[in-house]
Amino acid sequence: MKDDLIQPDRGQQAIAIHLVSKDGFPEFAKTLSGPQRAALAGQKFTAAGFQVGIVPDGDAWFAVGGVRNPAELSSWCLAKLAEELPAGLYRLAQDDAGKALHGWQTAQYRFTRYREDKDSEGPRILLSKEAKAIGPALAEAEAVALVRTLVNTPAEDMGPAELEVEAERLAKAHGAKLSVTKGETLEREYPMVHAVGRAAARSHAPRMLHLTWGDEKAPVLGIVGKGVCFDSGGLDIKPAAGMLLMKKDMGGAAHALALAALIMGAGLKVRLHCLVPAVENAVAGNAFRPGDVLRSRKGLTVEIGNTDAEGRLILADALARVSEEQPELVIDFATLTGAARVAVGPDLPALFTRRDETADALLVAGKAHDDPCWRLPLYEGYGEWLKSDIADANNAHTNGFAGASVAALFLDKFVAEGVDWAHFDTFAWRPTPKPGRPKGGDALGLRAAWHMIQARFA
């Protein structure tokens, strides 16, 4: 975000916004003059959700927004207003914007790296009397914008090296330490990360990014994100249509870095370990092959049933590494399976956890902050589908059933026993726009995880 779109209300001259429900609109209309009611009628304003009306008021004007319930605002209640109103300063006629501060900001996100936004008139700034809410709201919207921008950027400009630059920027901003493992050291310490990424061009060489921050005596919190910057499918190559969105296959890494930024920015009392295995799954003479057997950091051997099931391989090494820190909680994010999208669609990240109470906390946080997720089973009975005749496990099963659960079961093998672990199989993409949520890269599961972590480590 280029501007602080939420600013303290110090009595500045600003345009008023009235929020009205459909049921409350007749009573509200009684407070208006005849010409004002006519103006709204001419705009066909009925106070339906996301409707925006402009009302003349002498030489000035005010805005009216349709919402379901002015007393219980969602994150997106102000989003359409922020998208459609002219640039300027605004304040709500009611005192409390609450969660709606978020949508006011995210509605004004634009991805302009490659094309100027000629339609933008400038920022719409909302004045708020909730002084303590402004900083957290700005940080949360900035984190969402970071996910969107990283995911929207094509792989040519967002490869493993560029993810490293982003991680270094965050480390410098928050006084964290970033270690980067590449080359022969990567092959030795993170063999599956190296195998998946070794076919890429030198400029997109694989690496493990490991950011650490916080008091070493504090509870360890592990955050892991899948950083496949482009996924061709490897030698099990995807069809052309299947590659069109594969710049977003590092969406898990984008979520992990954004969540790390929120954690560090808030100064949570944790010892943070954020790991991003960053690779490009390319096709070349040295690409890993179907039938190969890879040795993992944990020591387990993995037969490759499908080179297009590469995300779980790099996550496995990262999860094994973070488990060595004896974490109190590990959360990973990954654009892992098409099966999750078939099961729950693009809007809902599929959530897998070992512990019911962790799932409940994430589901409650997601619902409370308009970032819903849906729990799917870690059903141990499906683990037999990952058996290999020659190795400890196969990375892909062949029957086509329960793909998201089976992928999660594969990851579970690499998280240390007893560790509280949650896995988000997120889409990181919005195929159709909604108020406050433009088409393109998006954060799905980020806010659920953030608010759960805040509550747990406050």
Q: Could you name the key traits of this structure?
A:
458 residues, alpha/beta, Leucine Aminopeptidase, subunit E, domain 1, Aminopeptidase, nine-stranded mixed beta sheet, six-stranded mixed beta sheet, 33% helix, 21% strand
Outline the structure in words.
The structure is a single chain. With 458 residues, the chain is an alpha/beta fold. The protein folds into two domains: 118 residues, Leucine Aminopeptidase, subunit E, domain 1; 318 residues, Aminopeptidase. The chain is built from 15 helices and 20 strands. The strands form four sheets. Strands 7, 8, 9, 10, 11, 14, 15, 16 and 18 form a nine-stranded mixed sheet that branches. A six-stranded mixed sheet has the order 1-6-5-2-4-3. A three-stranded mixed sheet has the order 12-13-17. Helix 5 packs antiparallel against helix 10, helix 7 crosses helix 8 and helix 10 packs parallel to helix 15. The two termini are 27 Å apart. The model has no long low-confidence stretch (mean pLDDT 97). It comes from Croceibacterium selenioxidans. Keywords: Aminopeptidase, Hydrolase, Manganese, Protease. This is Leucyl aminopeptidase family protein.
Brief rundown of the structure:
The protein is an alpha/beta fold and 458 residues long.
Integer-rounded radius of gyration: 24 Å
* Strand runs, count: 20
CATH class descriptor name of the largest domain: Alpha Beta
Class from secondary-structure proportions: alpha/beta
Q: Which CATH architecture of the largest domain is right?
A: 3-Layer(aba) Sandwich
Largest sheet: 9 strands, mixed
| Whole-number count of domains | 2
Q: Give the terminus-to-terminus CA distance.
A: 27 Å
Global geometry: elongated
Helix content class: 25-40%
What's the CATH H-level superfamily name of the largest domain?
Answer: Zn peptidases
Family: Belongs to the peptidase M17 family.
Organism: Croceibacterium selenioxidans
Protein name: Leucyl aminopeptidase family protein
InterPro entries: Leucine_aapep/pepB, Macro_dom-like, Peptidase_M17_C, Peptidase_M17_N_1
